[in-house]
TrEMBL record:
Keywords: Membrane, Transmembrane, Transmembrane helix. The chain crosses the membrane at residues 22-45. Pfam families: Coa1. This is Cytochrome oxidase complex assembly protein 1. It comes from Rubinisphaera italica. The keyword Transmembrane applies.
Length: 159
C-alpha cells in the first residue's frame, strides 16, 4: 500500500492559524484585552494630567516654590504630583466651590505633601490654608496661615 503524500507546510500565517485554532484563540484574546486596557489606562492618565493643570494645583505648588524652608528641604525644581486625597467640589454654573485636598510634591533632595484648603468664588481660587509636610525632616511648614488676617489699608496709607 502506498501512503498518501504529505502536503508541504504552507508559509502563510492564515494556514498555520487555521491548523492551530486552539493556540490562536488565547493570543487573540490577550491582544484584545491589552488594547482595551491600554485605552482605559490612557484615558485615566489623561484625566490625571488635566488635574495637574488645574489653577488650584498650580497656585499651590507655586506657593511652595516660593517658601524658603520648603526649597531648602526639597531643593529646586519642586514638582507637584497628582492630587491624591481629599475633596474638590465645583459648581460650574455658579463658578464657586471649595477644595480640601493633598498634593504630593518632590524635589531633587526630598519629598513632601501639600495640604490645601481653598475656596472658588467668581471663577477664581483663593487658598485659605496651605501647609507642607516635609518627609525628610518631619516638619510641617505653614505657607499660608488660615488665621492670618490680611491687613486693610487705612485712608492715610492710600493717599
Amino acid at each position: 500500500m502506498s501512503e498518501a503524500p504529505k502536503q508541504p507546510h504552507s508559509p502563510y500565517f492564515l494556514d498555520w492559524a487555521w491548523n492551530n485554532k486552539l493556540l490562536v484563540l488565547p493570543i487573540v484574546m490577550a491582544l484584545v484585552f491589552s488594547l482595551c486596557g491600554g485605552c482605559f489606562g490612557l484615558a485615566y492618565i489623561s484625566s490625571l494630567q488635566s488635574l495637574r493643570k488645574n489653577p488650584l494645583h498650580m497656585k499651590s505648588v507655586e506657593a511652595a516654590r516660593g517658601n524658603e524652608q520648603v526649597v531648602k528641604e526639597l531643593g529646586l525644581p519642586i514638582e507637584g504630583g497628582f492630587i491624591s486625597e481629599g475633596n474638590i467640589e465645583v459648581d460650574d454654573d455658579m463658578q464657586q466651590g471649595y477644595a480640601d485636598c493633598t498634593i504630593p510634591i518632590s524635589g531633587p533632595i526630598g519629598t513632601g505633601k501639600l495640604f490645601v484648603k481653598a475656596k472658588l468664588e467668581a471663577g477664581k481660587w483663593t487658598i485659605n490654608s496651605l501647609q507642607a509636610s516635609l518627609e525628610n525632616s518631619g516638619q510641617i511648614v505653614t505657607i499660608i496661615d488660615p488665621d492670618a488676617v490680611p491687613e486693610e489699608k487705612t485712608e492715610a496709607e492710600e493717599e
